Amino acid sequence: MANRLMDALGIKGYRVTLERSIITDSLQKVEPHFTAEGLYRFLQKRRSRVSLATIYRTLSALTQMRLIKKFDFGEGTYRYELNITNGNKDTHHHHLVCVKCGKLIDFESDFFPQLNHLAEKLSQEHRFIIIDHELTLFGYCKQCASD
Amino acid sequence: MANRLMDALGIKGYRVTLERSIITDSLQKVEPHFTAEGLYRFLQKRRSRVSLATIYRTLSALTQMRLIKKFDFGEGTYRYELNITNGNKDTHHHHLVCVKCGKLIDFESDFFPQLNHLAEKLSQEHRFIIIDHELTLFGYCKQCASD
DNA sequence: ATTCTATTGAAAATTATTTTCAGTAAAGGG
DNA sequence: CCCTTTACTGAAAATAATTTTCAATAGAAT
Q1: Which nucleotide is nearest to A15 (CA to C1')?
Q2: Ordered structural domains, chain A, with CATH
Q3: Which residues of B touch A72 (CB under 8 A)?
Q4: Best CA proximity match to A72, nearest among A32, A102, A38
Q5: How many beta-carbon contacts under 8 Å exist across A and B?
Q6: Are B135 and A134 in contact (CB under 8 A)?
Q7: Which site among A126, A131, A136, A143 would you substitute to test the B interface, given the most B Cβ atoms closer than 10 Å to its Cβ?
């Protein structure tokens, strides 16, 4: 029951270990915006025990390969998200963050034509090969707006 | 020779201290994407000595007031930028980051009509009051693309 | 099976940032 | 202008997420 993330690690030359399989399997099941610590607790409750060090190491490898994304929403710890297309459904999305309570909302945008155009322009102008992007909007959520 | 940032702090009820004046004055002169540590060293070389603790405290206040912006470009430390309009010139811009060497390029985009439209849509949909946004593109710079 | 070496867990280290605390200095009333 | 109040500062200690070290283990290849 190999999974796509594990396959990708294998292709990159990483060894296929039990710990990495546990971690990559769990990424589909844990909360969508998870922290290293949160994943650690999730695994403790369920399958097996994987050390935090190994979790950090695996998340780091997956991040470098761009299979997951690492975000800083100002909480003092990073949150991670899967960055793979799920079947034929593109999981690409952006974030709306409440600057007061930290509430996080995902949104999709139909923005990509413009972004692609922008990426192309910048590509030429600065000789950059653009591979990804992030858009984050900040504001006050319904709750926090009332004061 | 009060400056706008100091004025803003004063209005918010912060005391007008020598240290805060030194810091807010220097933000116009230090490198545009500065770190707390970098600002500290900048001040050591020039005017006066302000402690790192005070620098962190002041940057934190300015960030909360949205007079500066705090970015995580994956270096293990934050970078800050002024977030005020400079005369009649809007300093708003976005970032292009090399995922390999960390090279950072600012760019402006003529993107805002679409962004405003998006913001409005999300505002209604999620009852958010949107006050700011960040767009970051990731890729490989000219140097790093060759391998 | 054996060898080689990447990987793991536990503990120690790292390091940016925050907090503590005693001394200092704004701000405002008299 | 002096006095009182209390926010502010610097230095040092604390915090806490993440990384590294290191000895033991287990993939992978021959």
Answers
A1: D27
A2: 1-85 (1.10.10.10), 92-147 (3.30.1490.190)
A3: 72
A4: A102
A5: 104
A6: yes
A7: A126
